[in-house]
Each structure stands twice: as C-alpha cells, then as structure tokens.
Amino acid sequence: ITWEDIGVTSLGIRIALIISLCVIVLVLVGLYIRYWEKDRTVWERASGKIKVCYLDLIQEAFSSRKSEEAIYVIPVNTAFDTIVDDAKQIDPLVAPKSLHGKFIKKICEQGFTVSELDKRIEESLQAGGYTPVAEENKARGKGKKYDIGTVVTIRGTRNYYYLLALTNYDKHNKAYCSLDDVKRSIESLIKYYDQNGQGIKLVVPLMGTGFSRTSLSHEDSLRIITSLFLLNANILAGEVDVAIYNGDKDKVSIEAF
User: Could you give the CA distance from residue 215 to residue 177 in angstroms, rounded to a whole number?
Assistant: First the structure.
C-alpha cells in the first residue's frame, strides 16, 4: 500500500502521520512498562539473579496455588513481638496493616498458634547463637531486645519466612529506625541468606517507607536495597526478588532498572 493508495499526497501530512505513530508506540511502551510489566532482571549469572518486581508479598507467600518454594522476608521489631493489636488498644504493639501484623495473622490461619510461633522464634534465636542486647521498657509484649539485623527463620506449611529485626519501639510502642538501621539490616540479611538460603528464591519487600518511620521514598528504598544486593552479588547463589507492593506502582517504577 502506497501513500497514494490511502489518498495522502502531501509530504507534510506524511511526516505528521509518521511522527504521530511513533508517539503512540512510545506511549504504549511506557504504559506497558509502568502498568503491565511485572518484573525486570537487573543482574544475572549462572548461580544467581537479582530482579525488581511488583507483587503482593503476603498474598504470594501464603498462596495455595504457588508450587515454587521461596523465602519471604518480614521486617519486624527487635523484640520479635507477636501481639497484633487494633486501634482501640492503648499503645498497641504490632500494627495489623504492617507486613509484620499480616504475617502473624496469615500464619495463624494456617494452623499456628501464637504460643507455637513464639516457641519457634525462640528456638531459631538460640540456634543462631543470638543473645539479647537490652531489656525492653514497655508494659506489654516481649521484654528482650535483639540487635538490628537479627534474622529468625520460620518454616511454614509451604515456604520459609525470614523475620528480620528492623525497628525499635519507643515508650508508646511506635516503631522507628534510621537509614543506617535499614542498611545494616539488609547487609545482615545478605550474609544470613548466603549461609542459610541454599539457593531458594528470596523475596525482599521495600523497607523504611511506612510503619518504620524512616521516611524513605519508595524509590529511595528500592535503590538502597537493590544496590546493597548488587554490591554483594559475588556471594549470591539463588534468585533475589526485590518486591514492590502492587498498590504502589504509582509511587515507584521499575523502568529505571
């Protein structure tokens, strides 16, 4: 088909049509990357891979349809509290809408009791050789506090969960951590995964953007976490997925990675 066949004889109109088509293609590609592309590989070699992706970590971690075994990282407070409170409680402990709170709710739905979860946390702390570094000054919850970056392994019915000590609580049980705490936690997680991961896929959420009150933007958190894994890529033996919650696509794009 020629220009004459479709009745376009003017050179100016031809150029305008070509430019318009190019713009439409670029817009469609941009929309695909932003709204439909689910993941992007940022580094890969024979024994390891680092990806950034969009997913609901809790939904995937407890999905009955998912057959592939994986390790899901759950940021928690340094006392590994397991009491999930609602807004009616004065000085509540674990927020129900945090990953910490959602994890406790979901794993209890799978048949765990809170006392059993506490027992497994204590067993993992002892197996890892961790000792408390301080006593918590709070009326409720656990009284022993562990180092930032302490990792506890919980075996679920289908997957593993790494509970990563990220935040401290103030006297009103409000979680907080610094940028250095986020970096320290990630570095500790990387070392722990290198020693214990056995090549199983690791799924890491963004940290420091919400309940931890670090005030990091979603993009800053993504860059910090991804950069730290890239710096330690030489010891990675397995796939690492840095996960952005599906509902936060408008806050950070994987296009730059």
Answer: 10
C-alpha 100/C-alpha 117 separation (Å) is 13
Per-residue pLDDT tens listing for the chain (257 residues) = 776 767 777 777 768 778 878 877 776 655 555 555 689 999 999 889 999 999 999 999 999 887 789 999 999 999 999 999 987 888 889 999 999 999 999 999 999 999 999 999 999 999 999 999 998 878 889 999 999 999 999 999 889 999 999 999 988 888 999 999 999 999 999 999 999 999 999 999 999 998 787 889 999 999 999 999 999 999 999 999 999 999 998 899 887 66
H helix intervals, the chain? 11-31, 57-61, 99-109, 114-127, 179-196, 218-231
Is residue 128 within 8 A of residue 151, CB to CB? The reply is yes
Q: What CA–CA distance (Å, rounded) separates 208 from 251?
A: 14
**Cβ-based neighbours of 237, under 8 Å, separated by 6 or more:** 47, 48, 194, 197, 199
In Å, what is the CA distance from 123 to each residue of 118, 119, 146, 216? 9, 6, 14, 33
Of 37, 68, 7, 80, residue with least CA distance to 246: 37
Q: Are 256 and 223 in contact (CB under 8 A)?
A: no
Distance CA(178)–CA(188), nearest Å, equals: 15
Residue 221 has φ and ψ, to the nearest 5°, of -60, -45
